Every structure is written in structure tokens, then in C-alpha cells.
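FYI - complex with uridine-diphosphate-N-acetylglucosamine, inputs then prediction.
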Amino acid sequence: MKKLEVFGANKLRGQIKISGSKNASLPILAATLLSNKKVFLTNLPKVNDIETMLLVLKSLGSFVKRYKDQLIIDNYNQKKKFASYNLVKTMRAGILVLGPLLAKLGEAKVSLPGGCAIGTRPIDIHLKALSKLGVKYKIIQGYVYAKAPNGLVGAKIKFSKISVGATENLIIAACFAKGITILSNCAIEPEICDLVNFLKKMGCNLKWISKRSIKIQGVEKTNEVTYNVMADRIEAGTYLIAGALTGGNLKIKGIEPKIIKTEIKILKKIGVKIKEKKNEINILETKKIKNINIKTAPYPGFPTDLQAQIMVLLCKANKKSFIKEEIFENRFMHVAELNRMGAKISIKGNKAIVEGKIKFAAAELMATDLRASVSLILAALSANGKSVINRIYHLDRGYENIEKKLKKVGANIRRVN
Ligand code: UD1
């Protein structure tokens, strides 16, 4: 099994170009199922979750072709309604095909995504909302069998809790529902706005009517569309933290600072020196990190997907910090490994108490999930000596060319068998 070897502790200097957003690409790919015209997508990241979603689409009958830097999806002959466990088990976003299949074909059998390292991750909110659009479903042997005998019919739906995936599934489904759907208490992550922009460009009729409410007027067909996926704000945040942690000077290119303004504000507050330009964020040599208390929250709050990374940085703060994880119940898997590197982090329920002034020691480590893996790389980048990170398949799900990007800015990192 492949591993990463990281030799710390070099200051990172230079430019890093941010890839397309994984979490925006996944729902957009699922939404292409609505169409029977060609869809041309650019800026999809080259990561394994995207490959998995393309396998799901192909298994459903989509025709997928790459031409230069474009991905062309043609669903003129897409008629299959079955997404198997083997494909959906590795990636929870597989459940996003449920909404479009029901909307277009009136029927679907999709595997339940199951739990994962960071929590149980149910889909009750997706199912409850779909049933309000007229869907009848049963869960049998790990599969959702769903039907819309009279087609989907628009409705007023208020989500009981903010969910990114449920908001996406329902937005996509409602585009083909008869009449008007109003969804409220929606997640408003930038990736959801990107999905909405894509759907609009494809000919769907959607309009935000308040901060967390969207009005969708059903349509019957879509247009051919070309769309450029937004940049990955979590990848950008990860490299900003890498720059701050190593006391380097990094230019993070291809991301609009305004989509990560909460993260930038927090980084500035703890002493990270940052300059913002239109499509670039510059991290300047940072010498001192101050402690802070933060909690993760739905956008525009601090993202749970950057919690592990900022925890590594806070290990360097002058004093104790507190991090409250409000989104997932079990998202502190990285803590045990960071403590093996010399961190002093204790967990009380959903709170992590992070002692400052830590000098990380290199170690052999085990990655447990996508963001946990990258937090171990960050800690290893700032530790003297050689660290080895095992189970990096988690990392390959969501970070494009991470070793290449880090090497280019001076990190000593390599992939070994
Ligand atoms: C998405 C992101 C993930 C990010 C998360 C929160 C993608 C592909 N993944 O995941 O990277 O960490 O948003 O920002 O975009 N929940 C329920 N019932 C449901 C659905 C969700 O109880 O039906 C709970 C979840 O267990 C979790 C919380 O709601 O505790 C938020 O989950 P959700 O926003 O749905 O996350 P995902 O869409 O799975």
C-alpha cells in the first residue's frame, strides 16, 4: 500500500494553484443526469471521488468522454435507475443521484451510503424532503427503493436541520417537479451556489428568495451547457495553513478571497499575516500564533472540513485553544495521531482542548479520513525528521497532486510503495 514520506521542517515558499472544487463537482455531476443534452465541464479536480462519481454515472448509462481539459457527459441514452453498494459505499455523495433519477425517470434504487469514520451520516433529511415532493420509498437490505408514481410535484419544504447533501439532492430534484418548490433552511455553502448557477445555465428556473430559501419552478427540459467549476476553498484553506505553519511565504492562486473570508478572518486574528488580491491570497512569513476558541458551523461559519488542519496550527499557539465540532459527532480521529507526534490535545465530548507551544516530533502515522490525512501531512511538514503516513488512499479522494504542489514550494515529500 502506498505511503507518504515527509521530511520536515522546510519553510514553504512560492505559488500554489488551487484546483477545482471536489464538493462542487460532485453534485454538478449528479445533476447532469437531469439532462439529455451534452454537458461540457471544465476545472473538475483530478481526485478519486470524481472518478467514483463518474463510475456511478457510467453504471447508470451516462456516456462520459474527456477531450483536452473538458469532460463531456452525454445522457441522451441514460435510462438505468440502479446505483450499487460497491460504488456508493466508498463515497457518501453517491446518494446525490437519487434526486435526479427520481426527477427524470420516476424511479430509483440507490444504495444507502452507510457510516464512515467521521460519524453515522444518515440520509433521513433527504428522504423526508423527497417524500414531500411525492416520492414513496422503502429501505430494503441497504437500498433505498424510491418511486414517484405521479411524477414529482412541487411543495414547500423546510429542512429540519441544515444539510449540504439534502439541500443539493432536493434542489436538483425540484428542477423537474411540476409547479413551484420552495426550500427553506437550506445550506448555502458556495458549492451549493455553484450547483444553482450550473442548473440555471442548463435552463432550470431557480431563484434565491432569502438568505436560506430558494424558489424553484419546475421545467421539462434542459439545454446543452458548458460550465467551469469553482475553485476548492478547502484545498485553499489547507495550503494557507501550511504556509502559516511553516513560517513560509506562499501565494495561493486561483481563489477569490471572499469565499473564504471567515477562514481568513480567523487566521488573521491568530496572527497569520495575509494579503488579499482579486484571485490570490498571499501568506507572509508568520512568526507568532495566538490562541483562539472556534467552533465549526454551516457556511458562512468555520468549515468542519478545515477543523483538523487548524488544530495543527493551534498546537503552535502561545496558549491553550478550544475547538468545538458542531457538525459531525466523531471528527477527532486525527487527535490520537497528532498526540503521538507530541501534541497535547484532549477531547471532552465534541470539544478539543489544544495546548499550545508544541514542537511536533516526526513519527510513523495512520490516516483515518480525508481531512485527517492532510492534517498529519501538515504536522509532519513542521516536524524535524522523517514522518511516514500510511493509508493515503483517503488523501487521494480529495487532494489533487498534493505531493507535486507541496514539492514545488519546497516541501520534502514523496510517495513510496
Ligand atoms: C458535505 C460535504 C462534506 C462536509 C459536510 C459539512 C460534500 C460531498 N461533502 O457532506 O465534505 O464535511 O457537507 O459541511 O459536499 N445529517 C443528518 N441527516 C441527513 C443528512 C445529514 O442527520 O439526512 C447530519 C450529518 O450526519 C451531519 C450534518 O447533518 O451531522 C451535516 O451533514 P451534511 O451537511 O448533510 O453533510 P454532507 O452533505 O454529507
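The chain is about 30% helix and 25% strand. The chain has a mean pLDDT of 95.
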